[in-house]
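Q: I'm writing up a methods section and want to include an example of the input and output format. Could you take the sequence below and give the corresponding predicted structure tokens, formatted cleanly so I can copy it straight into the document?
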Amino acid sequence: MRSSVGYVWVDSPLHRAPAAAKLVGLLVAVALVVLASSPVELALAAFGVAALVAASRVGWRAALRSLWGLRWFLLVVLCMNALFFSASDPLLSLGPVRLTLAGAAQGARIVARTALVVVLGTLLTATTRPQQLTSGVRDLLRPLARLGVPTEAAALAVGVTVQFVPTLLRESRQLMRAQALRCGPASSGGIMRRAVSYVRLLVPVFVSAFRRADELSVAMEARGYRIDGRPGRPGGENRP
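A: Here is the clean output for your methods example:
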């Protein structure tokens, strides 16, 4: 099974579904997950997401890959809610820090909702190619074009973003490996050393993102691309 730009090359009902329908389904599913509050509702939402993963045939490893990268963020969210959400009926009290059952439950709900939304987003990119996603956004926004909304620009922004994110993630991993060879892993040492290491990574990542954006804009201008869909003059100024 081969993966390219987040897309998993298998045949499934989700892969064959129209991109616009999947985008609408994603919005509805995310709304249902966010509105789920009780354990029963969250369990039903998790069961529905699990059914979608099984129907997509992308595999659990691919579906949960994004969650592994967010593990520390989710852990911080859980701890912050468990320790600072409520001061009533603490299970453990240490100065301003109070571990409460209500806070732990609130943190668990937030983590569960976030995890389900991330998996839903992963399923969308794993079953929809960037070109199809761009076309789906264009189809959904087409009625707004009559109101003067730049729908082509929005569709283009979505398509470029979907293709840029995996590239930037790949370059970030390469930078982290290079930094680990020079100065040691970014996750080693004290808190201040780790913070400085991660800040050092942000600068080249942003520089790479701006450089790629500039190269893309130059390439599009050289090919005479125009948002209105009419061909321009390659290598020259586009005229209306």
